[in-house]
Write a structure and sequence with these properties.
3-stranded antiparallel beta sheet
Amino acid sequence: MRLFKPNMVNWKYILGEIFLIFIGISLAIWFNNWNASNQIDENKRVAIDKIEEEIQNNLRELVAARNINIKIPEAIEAYKEMRSKTDGQVISSISEMQLFQKSFPGFLLINDSLRINDSIYSYSGDTKINLELPELSEIAWETSRNMGITNAFGYECLYGLESMYNVQRLVQNEVSKAAEALQTQEIARLLRILGFINQFDAKLEADYNSMLENISECL
């Protein structure tokens, strides 16, 4: 009688194969995680660069608009001092009018003048208030939020950006109110709103500068 011996299972070989498969899967997972992490870091870096550029542009817009709008209350007050309470004509000397026109160019468009005496003239014309509307963007910020990139920002950075853009929206809201008041010729309301805008502007400018100084902490 012939005896058959069953094939011996090479457990060493099988375990070795399983180990190699495990190592291969682990390496693949590690590489995918590493690649995803690098992509997140790259997206984060690009987002921070774009937000920084946006803040710089907004800061320039804010300062430029304020330098123009801050003269509106001054021009109105100076105009009231020269304007006659009886006939509404502007009474001043030539030198005073020249100084007014130099200080507030384009505010008073003179149509005619009448000499009252050797040095005083009566001027008639139209007034024009040039309200500068700053274009404050938040495209980079909203894009980064919608893509979920801001989830990778640190708490302090995210809190600072959220707060800064909230103040920016307040400024834009007040500027819209000022434009509406000017359009309806509500001068008293316009002056009151401009006072609010100056306060918000100061806060927003400080937030802009603070964020630009600390933007690297968001990386």
